[in-house]
Design a protein that fits this description.
Layout: E1 3-6, H1 14-21, H2 28-49, E2 62-67, E3 72-77, H3 84-106, H4 113-118, E4 130-138, E5 147-151, E6 156-161, E7 168-175, H5 185-195, E8 203-216, E9 222-232, H6 249-259, E10 268-274, E11 280-286, H7 293-296, E12 300-304, E13 307-310, E14 325-329, H8 339-344, H9 346-369, H10 371-391, H11 393-399, E15 404-406, E16 412-414, H12 415-423, E17 434-438, H13 445-453, E18 458-460, H14 466-477, E19 480-483, H15 489-492, H16 505-519, E20 525-529, E21 538-541, H17 544-555, E22 571-575, H18 579-586, H19 590-607, H20 613-627
Helix pairs in contact: 9-10, 9-11, 10-11, 10-14, 16-19, 18-19
The structure holds adenosine-5'-diphosphate.
């Protein structure tokens, strides 16, 4: 039987289009052809399992060979094979219609490479790199005759009898001149390692040399010889396909090292395994975070039935989990559609929700069962959790149970625990609990000191997302958050009680006037307050609200732009009950009064790290003078 024919198709010549359209992603032809070989092998296994194929399965290794002289690349499988009739049916009709449909869909849309990379173009992608493609196949069916299909990159094809003794299919690509890179071993190996690393059937590419012991010399030392071994490039049974009960921690760590050879050990991992309402397996690792977040993105690899698809998982994994590492395998993620469609796909949404829930459950579990070790890992996982809490309502609902805050003593609390912790001492006159925090222990030291003396507890909020997280805590937990320098210590938590002032109203006014002169900047608001005699004589504060706007701006997002030119007015609170106040009022000369006030104000600036340049020099000079009086 020799048959020639024409593939009926309304597109005049499909191949140049395929070639041009897929230009930047040529290498996927190999993924497509090896996937087909894997499918053919698995189909045969299934038939054998069902008792429908009675022959020997034998070795099923798929083999890839390069012939540099003939300029061919061959993909051979020992799968179900194709008869001549099937070639006509499957290759001409199914494969071709797949390719045509693809082009019809995307030809004019100008969509970018992403969809193309995800799209299973199938057998015809061979023509992206070949001027001629031969299929030689022997079907597994009893009494089948070997057949060959030859196509030359136009709409004509030829089917003829062939010689092939063993079951299976050889796809022989006669590479086009501009595709000879695919004759290079290293190039093929690189593509296979990318796409076929975990395909479920062994794949052989060439041989590698290995030295093995072959005896002993006269002194009894072992002798070695070099042997050539088939180089199997893949792990056909990666651990995500196994049941967690079969696996040890070491298995997970080993697999992590295979995926990310140069990374530090992960903190912990989650084995994903679900088959309803969608099918998904995988392992997600929580890495130790580096400062450089962007570098850490795109570390999750997406597979479909063990075939690598992409490491861009934007739509499948919630944003806050994109810093995780690992593998997700799902045949239910539609890969042959555009990105915008992917986002609205019901399965993708469900998958997204499922992963979020799994991660929340795992964290909740760790927190409950191993609180100690959870706290130790907090510096690494805190960012994930806070990010999730801020950005994902569903996650927040669960995470409120295990999102932690840390106080200056290094103790960790959930928000509810912390509410209880500070209840007695930090409830204001409106019955609101006030959480005090510092963003910088060093810089805000004098305020921390004053607040601690009052018996207040102080949280450390010095991490990346904390300025957003603070808002979140206020909204979700109904507490008031104040940075320690937001107000003079007496007013941080307003109890409604006022301290007695030792100055008369008249003296208060005079003192205020002196300080206004000394401060010498009308933007700053001076007030005289009755504070404890051992509080600082002057305290400079930046109101919580304004400062927070500024902080959020610095992190990006959140603060309205009109606060662009902060810092705004400082509040200068003068302690009317301090001994210095009296001293200033009692000084004889007006210039001495102002000079003393200036000294007290500068001390406050100094404690905030705000005294610099000329002002600092003047301050030092003045201090020296005072000291040598
Ligand atoms: P798809 O794999 O998406 O169905 P392809 O264009 O890749 O589309 O292949 C079309 C058909 O050709 C397949 O469905 C299969 O029946 C057949 N086929 C392709 N490669 C092989 C192979 N190596 N062995 C057996 N059959 C094959």
């Amino acid at each position: 039987m020799q048959e020639k024919g024409t593939i009926s198709i309304h597109t005049e010549n499909i191949f140049p289009i395929i070639k041009k359209f897929l230009y930047s992603d040529h290498e996927i032809f190999l993924r497509e052809l090896v996937s087909n070989a894997v499918d053919a092998t698995q189909k045969l296994r299934r038939l054998a399992a069902l008792g429908e194929y009675k022959g020997e399965l034998g070795d099923q290794t798929i083999e890839i060979k390069v012939d540099k002289k003939k300029k061919t690349l061959t993909i051979s499988d020992k799968g179900i094979g194709l008869t001549g009739e099937e070639m006509k049916k499957y290759i001409n009709q199914i494969a071709f219609s797949g390719a045509t449909e693809f082009l019809e869909k995307y030809k004019d849309k100008g969509e970018d490479q992403q969809i193309i990379g995800h799209f299973g173009l199938g057998f015809y992608s061979a023509f992206m790199v070949s001027k001629k493609v031969e299929i030689i196949s022997l079907s597994h069916q009893e009494g089948a005759e070997p057949a060959t299909w030859i196509g030359e990159g136009n709409t004509e094809f030829e089917i003829a009898p062939a010689k092939k003794k063993s079951r299976g299919t050889d796809i022989i690509l006669h590479l086009a001149e501009d595709s000879e890179e695919f004759l290079e071993d290293h190039r093929i190996r690189q593509i296979l390692e990318k796409y076929a690393r975990f395909m479920p059937v062994p794949i052989k590419f060439g041989t590698r040399e290995e030295s093995v012991e072959d005896g002993k010399d006269k002194d009894g030392n072992p002798t070695y010889k070099t042997v050539k071994k088939d180089d199997i490039i893949n792990d056909a049974l990666p651990i995500w396909t196994k049941s967690p009960s079969e696996l040890t921690d070491e298995d997970y760590l080993k697999f992590y090292r295979v995926l990310y050879p140069y990374s530090e050990e992960p903190l912990f991992w989650i084995h994903l395994n679900v088959d309803y309402p969608f099918n998904l397996t995988g392992i997600l690792y929580f890495p130790k975070l580096k400062k450089d977040f962007e570098m850490q993105r795109n570390k999750i690899q997406l597979y479909s039935r063990q075939v690598f698809i992409t490491d861009e998982v934007k739509d499948v994994v919630p944003e806050f989990l994109q810093l995780l590492h690992g593998v997700i395998d799902s045949p239910d993620i539609p890969l042959n559609v555009s990105r915008s469609y992917l986002q609205s796909d019901a399965n993708v949404k469900k998958i997204n929700g499922y992963i979020t829930k799994k991660v929340a459950d795992k964290l909740g579990d760790l927190f409950k069962k191993e609180r100690d070790s959870y706290e130790k890992k907090w510096s690494d996982i805190g960012l994930f959790v806070k990010y999730g809490v801020i950005s994902e309502e569903k996650f927040e609902e669960k995470a409120r149970e295990f999102v932690l805050v840390k106080n200056l003593e290094g103790k960790y609390f959930t928000i509810e625990e912390y509410k209880k912790h500070v209840e007695a001492n930090q409830t204001n006159k409106d019955k609101a609990k006030v959480f005090l925090y510092t963003t910088d222990e060093q810089k805000q030291h004098s305020y921390i000191d004053a607040a601690t003396k009052r018996g207040y507890d102080i949280l450390l909020m010095n991490e990346m997302l904390d300025s957003h997280f603070i808002n979140h805590v206020e909204q979700k937990f109904e507490v008031t958050m104040k940075r320690v320098d937001a107000d003079v210590v007496d007013k941080l938590i307003e109890t409604g009680e006022t301290k007695e002032s030792v100055l008369s109203e008249e003296e208060n006014k005079t003192l205020k006037g002196i300080f206004e002169k000394a401060v010498n900047d009308s933007k700053n608001a001076v007030s005289v307050e009755a504070m404890a005699t051992d509080d600082f004589p002057v305290t400079i504060t930046l109101p919580e609200f304004l400062r927070r706007m500024k902080d959020m701006q610095a992190v990006g997002g959140g603060g309205p732009m009109m606060f662009g030119d902060l810092p705004v007015t400082l509040s200068v609170a003068v302690n009317g009950n301090h001994a210095i106040a009296r001293k200033i009022l009692d000084a004889e000369k007006e210039e001495d009064k102002v000079s003393l006030a200036k000294q007290a104000f500068d001390l406050a600036l100094l404690s905030q790290g705000m005294l610099t340049g000329r002002e600092l020099t003047d301050f030092i000079r003045r201090s020296v003078e005072i000291a040598s009086l």
